[in-house]
Automatic annotation (TrEMBL), chain A:
GO terms for biological process: chromosome segregation. The keyword DNA-binding applies. Belongs to the ParB family. Keywords: DNA-binding. It comes from the Bacteria. This is ParB/RepB/Spo0J family partition protein. One of its GO terms (cellular component) is chromosome. GO terms for molecular function: DNA binding. It comes from Thermus islandicus. It holds the Pfam family ParB_N.
TrEMBL record, chain B:
This is ParA family protein. It comes from Thermus islandicus. InterPro entries: AAA_dom, DNA_Partitioning_ATPase, P-loop_NTPase. Residues 59-222 form the AAA domain. Transmembrane segments: none annotated. Pfam families: AAA_31.
């Protein structure tokens, strides 16, 4: 008896799983994922109306006939706008974490996540994987970097460090070292720069450059110029100009002290040497007198 | 919309508040118009029914002897007598449905069969085989259609397309497929809204289900392009399972019938149809549906099955006045 039932249950499963690769939109559930903004949905919807969804969405069965979208929420939204009843999918029977890793890889490979989204996505994935908060992950990464550069004793849990390296390898986009170096600073960006990054109107290298400018007005001006298509080199030059202006000239007596420190009387021409020695002696006498 | 339905004499007599014998007397005296079909008398009654679109279903399984043809005949008659305009389509070159409805397959011209659909993309004019009941017959030559279909671009959709032209002329189109998974069977399966799958209550019937489920998924994909709304949210096009040839005396059949309840997750599982060799022979020999053979249980069973399909599968608004 149980054999027949088992066979029929198998049939039920078989019948419920989609034949090839199409699922109705109602069966799909968006899941939390790295992308924060959905731009140009209209354009995508238009192309979907004309040609259909070309690249299958990655989905993961939830077991109740519904599927979580692993990758392709943008296509899902656009297909909805285009009035499609269903979309092509690739069903992955993976545990959620593996699926998320794949989603991130997929998203990163499509190259249209902005750097800020990408950074948050990577961090989210790491925190999920390691069971740590985002702050703890950032701490761990910094610690790994310091340990590597020999600045502190290596007290990082090796298991975590190893997993971090594995994940970055799976991502295939950058090493964890360069992530720490170039991407983590994005988290500390002031609001205006972060907004520009999220909009995708500013390269992250430009954002890091602009971060050096503390004067809000100057930064706003440079930000506009950078958005207007200033090259990174030009931008760097402009930033330097602003920074020079920003920099308060050091007090003159410090300048004197610096120069004196470097002074080697032996190397001076005799006449000049005599004059300098005389003035210095005078200065010393003056300073010693109370 | 005017529709004619057939009221069994007993039911009519009760409604009119007279005894059955008085009703029979009236019939003899010609005071009331009546029709004798097989074993029973019926009183035709004209009712007003709502206008609604045509629904098309295909009796489908590649297993032979599962009961496709008997079901097509009996359900077709039952629905017609309840006032639905029913078109039966015999897609099987064996032409059993045609013969069982009293049409000699040897008298059937190729033009009258699905060959016309395959060759000219036109639905032949059906023969009327009863009140509200029409038939597109088959003949042995229909077997040629299989080969012709293979060469015809989009041949699989030929019947579906031809039926779209008579949309509204019938309430229900029931297609009797053949025991095969060849191109005629595909054309039959893709003709309409879904498959009614007879399942012989036994190991053989269960075994056949694997392939049925598989092709029902493929057919669903094929229909996706043609009728995306119709198949959205479904992964197959099975509309119901109908357990047949159930033998209450055997333990095995009882257990299998119970287990078949599992299929409810795929599609509604209809009340079973029992194995009745006697009435079955009587029906085929007499060229009448089983409910006219005088076997009360058989008639009740068909009525029950019809009720179920009307409620769970066809979803018509009630025709009865």
């Amino acid at each position: 008896m149980s054999a027949i039932r088992a066979y029929l249950k198998g049939l039920v499963e078989e019948a419920k799983s989609p034949a090839t690769s199409h699922l109705p939109l109602e069966a799909l559930l968006p899941s939390p994922q790295p992308r924060r903004r959905f731009e140009n949905l209209e354009a995508l919807a238009e192309s979907i109306r004309e040609k259909g969804v070309l690249q299958p969405l990655l989905v993961r069965p939830l077991g109740d006939g519904r599927y979580a979208i692993v990758a392709g929420e943008r296509r899902y939204r656009a297909a909805k706008m285009a009035g499609l009843a269903e979309v092509p999918v690739r069903v992955l029977d993976l545990p959620e974490k593996e699926a998320r890793l794949l989603a991130l890889v997929e998203n990163l490979q499509r190259e249209d996540l902005n750097p800020y989204e990408e950074t948050l996505g990577v961090l989210e994935l790491l925190s999920e994987e390691l069971g740590k908060t985002r702050e703890e992950v950032v701490g761990l990464l910094r610690q790994m970097k310091n340990a590597k550069e020999g600045r502190i004793r290596d007290n990082v849990v090796p298991k975590d460090a190893q997993r971090v390296e594995e994940i970055f390898k799976a991502l295939g986009r950058m090493t964890w070292e360069s992530f720490v170096q170039h991407r983590l600073p994005l988290l500390g960006l002031p609001e205006d720069l972060r907004a520009a990054l999220e909009e995708g109107t500013l390269p992250y290298t430009a954002a890091l450059e602009l971060k050096k400018v503390k004067d809000l007005n100057a930064r706003a001006r440079l930000l506009e110029e950078a958005k207007g298509g200033l090259s990174l080199r030009e931008l760097k030059a402009r930033v330097r100009e602003v920074l020079v202006k920003e920099k308060v000239p050091p007090p003159w007596h410090k300048e004197v002290a610096t120069r004196l420190a470097r002074l080697d009387p032996e190397s001076l021409p005799p006449e000049k040497r005599r004059a300098v020695e005389e003035k210095v002696r005078e200065l010393l006498a003056l300073l010693e007198k109370r | 919309m005017r529709r004619e339905r057939l009221i069994p004499l007993l039911e009519w007599a009760r409604k009119e508040g007279m005894s059955e014998s008085l009703a029979r007397k009236w019939i003899r005296e010609g005071r009331v118009e009546a029709v004798r079909l097989g074993h029973y008398w019926y009183i035709p009654e004209v009712v007003d029914g709502p206008e609604q679109g045509t629904q098309t279903y295909t009796f489908f399984t590649h297993a032979g002897g599962a009961g496709k043809t008997s079901l097509a005949r009996d359900l077709g008659f039952e629905l017609a007598s309840r006032g639905y305009r029913v078109l039966l389509v015999d897609a099987d070159p064996q032409a059993n449905l045609t013969a069982w409805l009293g049409v000699d397959p040897n008298s059937v011209e190729e033009e009258e069969t699905l060959l016309k659909v395959i060759r000219q993309d036109l639905l032949p004019r059906p023969r009327q085989v009863g009140r509200n009941l029409y038939l597109i017959p088959a003949s042995v030559n229909l077997a040629m259609g299989e080969l012709e279909l293979d060469k015809k671009p989009l041949g699989a959709l030929a019947l579906r397309t031809a039926l779209e032209r008579v949309e509204g002329e019938y309430d229900l189109v029931l297609v009797d497929s053949l025991p095969s998974l060849g191109s005629l069977a595909v054309m039959a399966a893709l003709a309409g809204d879904g498959l009614l799958v007879p399942v012989e209550t036994g190991a053989k019937g269960i075994q056949a289900l694997g392939a049925v489920v598989q092709v029902a998924k493929e057919y669903r994909e094929a229909l996706r392009k043609v009728n995306p709304e119709g198949v959205a949210g479904r992964s197959h096009i099975i509309s119901a399972f109908i357990p047949t040839k159930y033998d209450a005396r055997t333990q095995g059949d009882n257990r299998i019938l119970q287990a078949l309840g599992e299929l409810e997750e795929i599609a509604p599982v209809a009340p079973r149809v029992a194995y009745r060799p006697g009435p079955h022979r009587k029906a085929t020999e007499g060229q009448i549906p089983i409910q006219l053979t005088g076997d009360r249980e058989a008639a009740e069973e068909v009525a029950l099955l019809t009720d179920f399909l009307l409620k769970r599968v066809f979803r018509f608004e009630e025709v009865v006045a």
